[in-house]
C-alpha cells in the first residue's frame, strides 16, 4: 500500500464494491420496508410484552440498521481497485505464503484483505488476514524474502519470512 493510503482505507475489488452497494440499496429500500411491515403486523396482534414476533422483528430491525451503518462506513472509506497483476510487494488482495521462524516446512498461506470485502465466498478454503491485524500490518508493503516479526495477541513475538507473494485469483 502506498504511504498516502491510511489504515482506515478499505481496499475493495470493483466486484466486491458493487455487491456491498447492492446490499446497502436493498437494506435501505425493500429490506427496511419488509421489517417495518413485520413490526406493524406483529403490533396489531395485541399485547407487545408477550409478542415474540414483535420482539423478533424489532431485533432484526436493529441488526439491519447496524449493518446499514457498517456498509455505509465501509463504502465511504473504500478504495476501489483490482489486485495487482504481478505484485512484488504484499498489498491487500495478494495471496501470501510465510514461513514461521524461517522454517520452510512450517508455512501458512493466506489472503491479505477481507473475505467479505474482496468478494470471497465461504467455499474458498483459504485463511484471510486483515491488513490491520498484527501479522497483516507487519508484512504490509514487504517483499518476498523479507523477514519481519510481530507481536501476537498473547504477547509473544513471532518471526516470519515472506516466502511467496502472488495476486489472488478469485
Automatic annotation (TrEMBL):
<comment type="similarity">
    <text>Belongs to the GreA/GreB family.</text>
</comment>
<dbReference type="GO" id="GO:0032784">
    <property type="term" value="P:regulation of DNA-templated transcription elongation"/>
</dbReference>
<dbReference type="GO" id="GO:0006354">
    <property type="term" value="P:DNA-templated transcription elongation"/>
</dbReference>
<keyword id="KW-0238">DNA-binding</keyword>
<dbReference type="InterPro" id="IPR001437">
    <property type="entry name" value="Tscrpt_elong_fac_GreA/B_C"/>
</dbReference>
<dbReference type="Pfam" id="PF03449">
    <property type="entry name" value="GreA_GreB_N"/>
</dbReference>
<dbReference type="InterPro" id="IPR028624">
    <property type="entry name" value="Tscrpt_elong_fac_GreA/B"/>
</dbReference>
<keyword id="KW-0648">Protein biosynthesis</keyword>
<feature type="domain" description="Transcription elongation factor GreA/GreB C-terminal">
    <location>
        <begin position="87"/>
        <end position="166"/>
    </location>
</feature>
<dbReference type="InterPro" id="IPR023459">
    <property type="entry name" value="Tscrpt_elong_fac_GreA/B_fam"/>
</dbReference>
<dbReference type="GO" id="GO:0003677">
    <property type="term" value="F:DNA binding"/>
</dbReference>
<keyword id="KW-0805">Transcription regulation</keyword>
<feature type="domain" description="Transcription elongation factor GreA/GreB N-terminal">
    <location>
        <begin position="10"/>
        <end position="80"/>
    </location>
</feature>
<keyword id="KW-0251">Elongation factor</keyword>
<keyword id="KW-0804">Transcription</keyword>
<dbReference type="GO" id="GO:0003746">
    <property type="term" value="F:translation elongation factor activity"/>
</dbReference>
<protein>
    <recommendedName>
        <fullName>Transcription elongation factor GreA</fullName>
    </recommendedName>
</protein>
<dbReference type="InterPro" id="IPR018151">
    <property type="entry name" value="TF_GreA/GreB_CS"/>
</dbReference>
<dbReference type="InterPro" id="IPR036805">
    <property type="entry name" value="Tscrpt_elong_fac_GreA/B_N_sf"/>
</dbReference>
<dbReference type="Pfam" id="PF01272">
    <property type="entry name" value="GreA_GreB"/>
</dbReference>
<dbReference type="InterPro" id="IPR006359">
    <property type="entry name" value="Tscrpt_elong_fac_GreA"/>
</dbReference>
<feature type="region of interest" description="Disordered">
    <location>
        <begin position="44"/>
        <end position="65"/>
    </location>
</feature>
<dbReference type="InterPro" id="IPR022691">
    <property type="entry name" value="Tscrpt_elong_fac_GreA/B_N"/>
</dbReference>
<comment type="function">
    <text>Necessary for efficient RNA polymerase transcription elongation past template-encoded arresting sites. The arresting sites in DNA have the property of trapping a certain fraction of elongating RNA polymerases that pass through, resulting in locked ternary complexes. Cleavage of the nascent transcript by cleavage factors such as GreA or GreB allows the resumption of elongation from the new 3'terminus. GreA releases sequences of 2 to 3 nucleotides.</text>
</comment>
<dbReference type="InterPro" id="IPR036953">
    <property type="entry name" value="GreA/GreB_C_sf"/>
</dbReference>
<dbReference type="GO" id="GO:0070063">
    <property type="term" value="F:RNA polymerase binding"/>
</dbReference>
Amino acid at each position: 500500500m502506498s504511504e498516502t493510503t491510511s489504515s482506515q482505507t478499505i481496499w475493495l475489488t470493483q466486484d466486491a464494491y458493487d455487491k456491498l452497494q447492492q446490499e446497502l440499496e436493498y437494506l435501505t429500500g425493500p429490506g427496511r420496508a419488509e421489517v417495518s411491515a413485520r413490526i406493524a403486523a406483529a403490533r396489531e396482534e395485541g399485547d407487545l410484552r408477550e409478542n415474540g414476533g414483535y420482539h423478533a422483528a424489532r431485533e432484526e430491525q436493529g441488526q439491519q440498521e447496524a449493518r446499514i451503518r457498517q456498509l455505509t462506513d465501509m463504502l465511504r472509506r473504500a478504495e476501489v481497485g483490482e489486485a495487482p497483476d504481478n505484485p512484488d510487494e504484499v498489498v491487500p488482495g495478494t495471496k501470501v505464503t510465510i514461513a514461521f521462524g524461517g522454517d520452510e516446512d512450517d508455512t501458512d498461506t493466506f489472503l491479505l484483505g477481507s473475505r467479505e470485502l474482496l468478494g470471497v465466498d465461504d467455499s474458498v478454503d483459504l485463511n484471510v488476514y486483515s491488513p490491520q491485524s498484527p501479522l497483516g500490518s507487519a508484512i504490509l508493503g514487504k517483499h518476498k524474502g523479507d523477514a519481519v516479526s510481530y507481536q501476537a495477541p498473547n504477547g509473544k513475538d513471532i518471526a516470519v519470512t515472506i516466502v511467496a507473494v502472488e495476486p489472488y485469483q478469485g
